[in-house]
Amino acid sequence: MVDVQHWLAAFPPGVVYLIVAGVIGVESMGVPLPGEIVLVSSALLAATGVIQPEWVATAAAAGAIVGDSIGYAVGRRGGRPLLERLGRRFPRHLGPAHLARAEQSFARHGVWAVFFGRFVALLRILAGPLAGALHVPYRRFLLANVAGGLVWAFGTTYLLFTVGRAAEHWLKDLSWAGLVVAVLAGLTSTWWLRRRARRLAPAESPDDAEPVPVSSDR
């Protein structure tokens, strides 16, 4: 992650924002890319003053919302065969077991899987295409998509930005106790969000999961 941050620092701010939006957008379409790593690295870079956190968060939110919407349209047109082709192309990330788990999440939680799925790597990639393939009503999908994208992008960016600035300040003042408190606060917040999101996943293991159809009225 440090290497990614240094790599981003070599670009002008405008290019960094485009990279953030582009990587997260393509990931949200259903292509496995390190969107979260790029966002975290950019937020920490913003803490150094090189780029602005509000533009990092805006770029991330835009990429997430637009990418998910494009993924929804592609999934709606291509259906399950498209997801299966993606699984064959990226078996380590989107194989049959992964697809089954994602379908289970949609079957149990409907569009909430889109909202909280933004905090889970598997659903972050599959939410848009899978919602389209399963004919989830677009208005409900869009509402969950926008809400999840904004909370994830701005929450992650400003959490890490605040922790990074506090760490820099306290390191200068040699206040290690304060640094530990800030880091623990950030980790606790992140843990709570991820724990809440992972409750969407089915209890059974990926190998045992079976696809479950989702009705369009959820």
Brief rundown of the structure:
This protein is mainly α and 218 residues long.
Provide the descriptors you would attach to this structure in a database record:
mainly alpha, membrane, 218 residues, single chain, transmembrane helix
Helix fraction by DSSP (H/I, runs of at least 4): over 70%
So how many helices?
10
Question: Rg, please?
Answer: 18 Å
Helix/strand order, N-terminal first:
HHHHHHHHHH
pLDDT < 50 runs, ≥5 residues: 202-212
General form: globular
Span between termini? 38 Å
β-sheet strand percentage: under 5%
The chain-level structural class is: mainly alpha
Number of domains: 1
**Topology, number of strands:** 0
Largest sheet: none
Give the overall pLDDT as a whole number: 79
Written description of the protein model:
- It is a single chain.
- This protein has 218 residues and is mostly helical.
- The protein has one domain.
- It contains 10 helices and no strands.
- Helix 3 (35-47) packs across helix 9 (138-173) and helix 4 (53-89) crosses helix 9.
- It is globular, with a radius of gyration of 18 Å.
- Residues 202-212 have low confidence and may be disordered.
Q: Could you give the topology of this structure?
A:
Blueprint: H1 2-9, H2 13-28, H3 35-47, H4 53-89, H5 91-94, H6 96-109, H7 112-117, H8 121-133, H9 138-173, H10 176-198
Helix pairs in contact: 1-3, 2-3, 2-4, 3-4, 3-9, 4-8, 4-9, 6-8, 9-10
